[in-house]
Amino acid sequence: MARDTHPKKEVRRAIKELRAAGWAIDVAGGGHTHRWGTAICPHQHPDGSGEATRCVRVIYGTPRNQYDEADRLRRALRKCQQMRTRFEKE
Ligand SMILES: [Zn+2]
């Protein structure tokens, strides 16, 4: 299996959704390492103090439950989309 392919199927699906939304996937250890990589959103969210922040989520290579791990990544994606909607309205 390629280093940049996550070992868990459901997590691979979530990663695919993140990539489709423009997120960068920075593969650190890859494979079955604890810290598989990092997902970074493509947006600059204003944080209220004039600074811009990006959403960042660590992707674990050995999640206890691949569905929970996939949910966690999808929640990050939803939260990011909600932030965009909120700031774009202002
Ligand atoms: Zn974001």
Secondary-structure map with pairings?
Layout: H1 9-20, E1 24-27, E2 35-40, E3 45-46, E4 52-53, E5 56-60, H2 66-89
Antiparallel strand pairs: 1-2, 2-5, 3-4
Helix pairs in contact: 1-2
The structure holds zinc ion (ZN).
Zinc ion binds at residues 41, 43, 45, 54-55, 80, 83.
Keywords:
21% strand; alpha+beta; binds zinc ion; single chain; two-stranded antiparallel ribbon; 90 residues; three-stranded antiparallel sheet
Question: What does this protein structure show overall?
Answer:
The model has no long low-confidence stretch (mean pLDDT 91). The longest helix is centred in the C-terminal third of the chain and has 24 residues, at 66-89. This protein has helices at residues 9-20, 66-89, and strands at 24-27, 35-40, 45-46, 52-53, 56-60. The chain is elongated, with a radius of gyration of 14 Å. The chain has one domain (9-84). It has a three-stranded antiparallel beta sheet, with helices on one face. Helix 1 packs parallel to helix 2 (66-89). By secondary structure, the protein is α+β, with helices and mostly antiparallel strands. Helix content is 40%, strand content 21%. The N and C termini lie far apart (45 Å). The protein binds zinc ion.
